[in-house]
Design goal:
The radius of gyration is 19 Å and the shape is globular. α4 crosses α9. Strands 1-5-4-2-3 form a 5-stranded parallel sheet. Strands 7-6-8-9 form a 4-stranded parallel sheet, with helices on one face. It is built from 10 helices and 9 strands. It is α/β, with parallel strands linked by helices.
Length: about 270
Amino acid sequence: MLVSIEWLYNNLKDVKVVEIDYNPQISYYEGHIPGAVLINWRDFLSDNSRDFASPEKLSKVLGNAGINNDDLIVLYSDMNNRYAFYAYWILKAYGHSNLAILNGGIYKWLRENYPIDNDAVVVRRSEYKASKPDWSSRILVWELLSRLKEIVLIDSRSKEEYDGLTTAPPEHKCEQTQMSGHIPGAKNVPWTTLLNDDETMKSRDELGRIFSWLNREDRIVVYCRTGARASVVWYALKEVLGFRLVRLYDGSWVEYGNMVGVPVEKSISDHS
């Protein structure tokens, strides 16, 4: 599920490489992996509500990218590869199981001096058929609030966000919430602690030590600001370490930190 830079380079003709970008004009057109098609992160979202796309819309998005249902999709992204993990979580829910993530993403690809292209890839449209999503790995705020005492919460944001020093990370500093802090009982495991300096994911043994405080029977919920960073933690727990009961709260702090009447904890005093 995590493929190396070398493996991808040797298998470029046999897979569909997809770059998932938050800022496509900044990332993809400045240089991308040869043959990689671009999918804007927002294409996974619904046009009519704050939710994910319908199967019909997702089918069109993937079909326009020339992807077939049986293709092996290798994902990478900008923003420290976080949206590759988020896309993995979404696509798996919609029934595409033949998925992999480029370990280290575009950063490691460039760092090791592999070739890049600057022009958009011309693709032949395919007829993709997305399934009705299986959201068993997702939790909505209503259920979350009713189960706060039953679940193990992991906040994967930075310590500054978790403590309540800021309501948004530096890369999204204009997108503040009304409240700072964290969901009561949540333990802070910043997503970056799961990655090496070259942005590859740490080994199974290292991840096991990071999460040694968890029990296999725990019902785990991970969250961050919008779900992207939390998807890295979800992947490590579910796909690498094999925890069965892991769900992602994609509403995350953008939703929770703007809700009226919900409980909030802070690790600092609020003098406002």
